Amino acid sequence: MLLSMNWIEDFVDLTGLDKLELIQKISLSTAEVENEIFFKGSDLSGVVVAEIVSVEDHPNSKKLHLLKVDAGDGKLTDVVCGAPNVRVGMKTAFAKVGAQLGDITIAPRPLAGYDSFGMCCSEAEIGMSDDHSGIIDITEDAENGTSIKDVYPIDDIVFEVDNKSLTNRPDLWSHYGFAREFAALSGRELKPIPTEDLTAYDNLKKVDMKIEDTLCKRYSCMQVENITRKISPAIMRIRLNYCGLRAINFLADLTNYLMLEIGQPMHAFDSRKVEKLRIKRFDAPFTFTTLDGVERNIDENTLIICSDNTPVAIAGIMGGLDSEIVDDTTTLTLESATFDAVSIRKSTVRLAHRTDASIRYEKCLDPEMTTLAIGRFLYLLKKYNPDAQVVSSLTDEYPVKYDTVTLSFDKKFVDRYTGIEIDNDTIVKTLTDLGFKVTLENDNFTVVVPSWRATKDVTIKADIIEEITRIYGYDNFEINTAKAPLYPVRAEAVKTNEDRIKDILVKSYNLHELHSYVWAYNDELKALGIEVEENVKLANATNPNIETLRNSIIPTQLCQVKSNTGFATDFGIFEIGRVVKGLDTNNLCVEEKNLAITLFSKTKDIKTLYLELRDMLAVITRDVKHTSLTFEAKAPAHGYEHPVNLYGLSIDKKEIGTMGIVHPAVMKKIDKKANVVFAEINMEAFTEAATDAIMYDEPSKFPAMTYDLSLELPAGLFFQKLSETWKEAGTELLRSVNIVDTYDTDTVHSITVRFEFSSNERTLSGDEVSEIMEKVMANMTALGVTLRTQ
Fold first, then answer.
1. What is the average per-residue pLDDT within 527-554?
2. Sign of torsion, CA 465 468 472 474?
């Protein structure tokens, strides 16, 4: 939001103070000021008031005129001008030879065969507004040769405040709100806003108005006739332009001016088109054309301002095209209202249309401002259009009022929170300057929060401490080392497991950690041939591409892999992120935190890549849980999963996730020459699985004996099932069993297994080892295992 120091100084006298230093204090105490400060008018010089003494048509041009102007220097100056509104006796802004207009220096120059010694200026050329339709027509009483800066307030300091820092401060969406802050910081008096006395019109008829929906918190209106002024005064056009708004016409400019001045959006209806005002919602959707000429779809949740049953405005957002102020408008019905902030916010999202008014309404405006705004409107209207007549009394409905917020605390509370000594007089003055009502009795404070801070901002005693300290100045605090006991905090098991898993994947396997959003990207998944599965959707999503929340991280990672196929021939990515598995009984999202791993390779065959992923998961389970991971074939549940090569992952017979190969059709769309495998583990289930104790075995001082068997396995027999056969042998002499080789053909699946035996008490004999192996072999034979003969 752009703010004008000239405008702020209407309400607080800052004479003699360093304005740039005060703006810096605003940034430190109130709201973040952007780095660039604009010194309006600083690049303008040599422009004076001049009178056009004669006008002749250019003999060789239909647009140009030959002028003689009196710039107050005792001579007439020849000027060639193309403005359509030139006339004899007109006073305008004249840039003399040597004048500076931004980067342009005025110099004598020939135009269409005639020399021009200066330039008559439009408002756009000197930065007053964006109007370049003609040269400035100065109606103010000013002598020729007077600097244009003495006629109009062109010199100004404009600074910009970051809107995000004003989210909880609806009172700061205005110049008067910032004037209050400047007054408190500088110790100067805040001037009241001059307004019209509305009680003077109590004897007039009321406007036919009725609130029919509780989403309208307050609605105030009045009617005015005999409005003859069409163009706003120069000071209004300049200020609107400096603050980023363009001048439209007097009435529209006046409502915009008041919105920037006191923060209350207003709307002026042409009274000829608005009769019975009704504020309500409709039962069925319909279309409505707004002031910008756009036809918008209005649903049953959007609050509408109506003339009887005819919509004339979208409450808090924008007026309708059919009831706008036009050139021949002389009577108006003035609206000043407040609406439910959440409703306005939702309506702007549904309509995909935010305005300066809706931005303010979303911040919970103070309902007490509506009548103040009308009083200010009438004051300025009569100042610049004295013949305007008020033809109704104030019509005001106020069904929803905020509670008065009163907070009590003592001096010890302030000292304890601030850690410094701030005297009572400073506390009282600071709060009073900010508009709070303060009562002090024996170091006990009772503070009544002003209405403009009570809608959502100041609600607890700690908020009062913030008000005191920010005006006192955080830079005035003495730097002291805080004294407080520090206790060691044990990290949660889930977080500990996450950190250890990340270390393993990055340090041992060189995987890349990625972070992604929680929604499913419809367009990207569609490009891979993956259908977005039905799940929880975002209400009022502005982008249909991201309206569905994901139930798995793997599709997201497949999109990421697709985007990075040119990064390297082989790479792996992982993420520990959130997924949503539907809604619970309270209609809240069921969130899960999952570990997802995806490996991509153009150089490794699918089996090698798959076993590499299996080894990663086995190492994670062994190092973190000190146990083994079991694999069990399962049917695919998602379109991106391979129809055969999918396995459930379990610890102690409790499933914790899945691993598999990407479906060939999806893999082909990622890269025709690459292989892709994936795994996803539920971190909560992984953490809840029992962690085995670490067992330490004393190394035997006697030599070990090894026994290798080459076995042919029947189809469907897994090593896990095979391992149960030697456990059934029931001997403590068998210390370890490992696969040392594999051999596969179309008809044979063979593995070489190494058995290691040892004893801590003696050297084992060949006979006792052979006896054990006979039992093991008998058990394996029962499963269909045979010794490989070749």
1. 89
2. positive
Nearest to 284, CA basis, from 305, 298, 303: 298
Strand partners, 750: 712, 743
pLDDT at 223 over 90: yes
Residue-wise DSSP of 519-573: B--HHHHHHTT-PPPP--B-TT-S-GGG-BBPS-SHHHHHHHHHHTTTT-SEEEE
Q: Kindly report the backbone phi and psi dihedral angles of residue 642, in degrees, each rounded to the nearest multiple of 5, phi listed first.
A: -65, 140
- How many Cα atoms within 13 Å fall on the side-chain side of residue 474? 11
Is residue 491's pLDDT more than 90? no
Amino acid code (one letter) for 447: V
Of 686, 526, 535, 537, which Cα lies nearest the Cα of 622? 686
String of DSSP letters for 588-627: -EEEEEEEEEEEEESSS-HHHHHHHHHHHHHHHHHHHHSS
Q: What's the rounded Cα separation, in Å, for the pair 530 and 555?
A: 8
Q: At what angle do helices 411-418 and 424-433 cross, to 10 degrees?
A: 90
Q: Predicted confidence band at 507 (pLDDT cuts at 50, 70, 90)?
A: very high
Helix segments in 301-355, DSSP class H: 341-351
Structure tokens at 407: 């907070």
Contact 669, 605 (CB under 8 A): no
Are 173 and 338 in contact by the 8 Å Cβ rule? The answer is no
Contact assessment for residue 81 and residue 40, using Cβ atoms and an 8 Å cutoff: no
| Helix intervals (H) in 362-513 | 369-384, 411-418, 424-433, 461-472, 493-503
Average pLDDT (577-597) is 93
Instruction: Give the residue among 711, 689, 677, 707 at the shortest CA–CA distance from 779.
Output: 711
Alpha carbons 198 and 361: distance in angstroms, whole number? 24
For residues 333 and 277, what is the distance between their CA atoms, to the nearest angstrom?
Answer: 10
Cα–Cα distance list, 196 to 375, 390, 678 (Å): 5, 11, 72
Burial 476-505 (b: 16+ CB within 10 A, else e): eeeeeeeeeeeeeeeeeeeeebbeebeebb
Instruction: Look at residue 252 and give its three-state secondary structure.
Output: helix
537 pLDDT exceeds 70? yes
Task: Give the pLDDT confidence score for residue 730 in this predicted structure.
Answer: 65
pLDDT of residue 35: 86
The region that residue 436 occupies, defined by phi over 0 for left and psi between -120 and 50 for alpha, beta otherwise, is beta
Average pLDDT over residues 332-350: 94
For residue 633, pLDDT beyond 70: yes
Here the tokens at position 704 are: 């070990």
Report how far residue 316's alpha carbon sits from residue 335's, in angstroms, rounded to the nearest whole number. 11
Predicted TM-score of the model (pTM): 0.73
> Which amino acid is located at 561 in the chain?
V
pLDDT at 118 over 80: yes
Whether residue 650 contacts residue 656, with contact meaning beta carbons closer than 8 Å, is answered with yes
**Taking a C-beta distance cutoff of 8 angstroms, is the pair 155, 29 a contact?**
no
Residues above pLDDT 90, as percent of the chain = 76
Whole-number Cα distances in Å, 473 to 93, 186, 469, 753: 45, 12, 6, 76
- What pLDDT shows up at residue 396? 96
Q: How confident is the model at residue 675 (pLDDT cuts 50, 70, 90)?
A: very high
Please, which residues have CB within 8 angstroms of residue 567's CB and are 6 or more apart in sequence? none
Per-residue model confidence (pLDDT) at position 156:
96
Task: Provide the mean pLDDT of the chain.
Answer: 92
Nearby residues of 487 by Cβ (< 8 Å), 6 or more positions away: none
The one-letter amino acid code at 505 reads L
Specify whether the CB–CB gap between 328 and 314 falls below 8 A.
Answer: no
In the chain, % of residues over pLDDT 70? 99
Both tokens assigned to 692? 């085995």
